[in-house]
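Let us work through a complete example step by step.
Step 1: write down the sequence.
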Amino acid sequence: MWLKFHEWAKQYSGVNGFYMVEILGTSILVVSDEAVAEELMVKRAKYNSDRPEIRSIFDSKSTDGSMEYLPLMGKNQYWARQRRLTHAYLTEASNAHYYGAMYHEAKRWLVRLLENPDDFQFSLEDMASKVMCQLTWDDPSLSEYCTRSAWGLLTQMSPAGPITNVLTPLWHIPEIINPWKRAERKRHDEQQEWWKERLLHTRAKMMLGLQRPCFARQYLEKGHKRSNISGDYEASCVIGMIALVGIFTVAGPLSYWLVSMVHHPRWQALVQKEIDDACQGRMPTLEDAPRLPTLRACIKETMRWKPNVPTGVAHEMEADDVYRGYFLAKGTRILPLDWAFLRNPIKYPDPDNFRPERWLEPGWPTYQEPLTQYPTIKGMTTFGWGQRQCLGQTLTQDELIVACGALSWCFNLKPKKDLTTGLDLPVPLDKSNSLLIIKPDPFQMAFEPRSEARKQEALREWAKSEAQDRRERYEFAKQATIMLEKSRAEI
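Step 2: predict the structure and record it as tokens.
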């Protein structure tokens, strides 16, 4: 879809930077120029920050009070209060460096890659999911189900998902004979029940003094008093969505990082040298980030070169408007075409090629100083616009720095050899799914430890981290049990 929209932009946008298309009765203003997107969705955000209805999801905009999906909600009371809560929790987690969850899971992932490299696509998503399950419910064992739940929702909300998102009249067939509606009912009910169960489980553990800090505990302790969240159901939904979105925003860029490094071994070597010099042989941490501009440049260029939300996420106009002499009716969808923004040859010379130097060398239009701060992925068009900008930009950046830094520290990322011919197996550049948030189609590659010493160090780091995690959990449970027994004795 993004390729066709970009092709039409070259043909029809002209100097305006936008064009109108009608698809099955829906009017869509496709925006291909960043300045136009800034005007419409930032400067006029007050009137252009609604979301279009996702037909194949029950009450996606929470018009009827379902309160379930923050990124899809209309601009209503539920959206405003859930956004405030999400922003507060993510900011606090960022300030606390995510309580060590990212480092712990990155070390686990390295060992999984050493032991089973062919399963890297599953373990990559599972790593991102474990981080979010740790932050939200203090339980990384929930990651596999949470990942399936995340992709189930993403598929349901994407134009390339159920046909009822495109041929919307089919959705109105009575549910008893409507396979799409029955499937969504099952998916929806299971997901909401699981989210609610997680919150109730957290409350039960808190009553026993056994629940360690996490977003769910934070809400149950303070959030229900400080926020306008209506109760358990809404709270379970907003916390569940934090977990799901945290998988989406990391798994795609991290998958494309692998593609970038396999195809650009020179840049991989430069990142490895930078990490070795800055960190003196140890695995990099977020404290090292100011000294790792090449790593950050390659992450940012990966997200520019292979954006994981190439169509952008649509806004819906809340009122009639006139823009540059054109009448735009209320209900028009504004589609910020991220693929076009990130292929702008004026801002990004040689846009179709992977050029991290555009962020590192004076003379490029995108170069910024100081290099201890720039390049940063925060503020990229991929994260959306105005009042709908993604709240997880810092989390995404930090997790990518930790994960990509750990990979570069431990492995040489290479094409995998065909055992019969001895030739490199291809890693395609143009194969992906067609969902709203994309990732590469399955491919094969090799994870070669940079040295035996580095491999053994990775194994030791994980063993140490795992032992510490078990010890901390045991000590917490032990202290909780002592306090509980003391309370019972006093009663």
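Step 3: interpret the result. The first strand starts at residue 18 and ends at 23.
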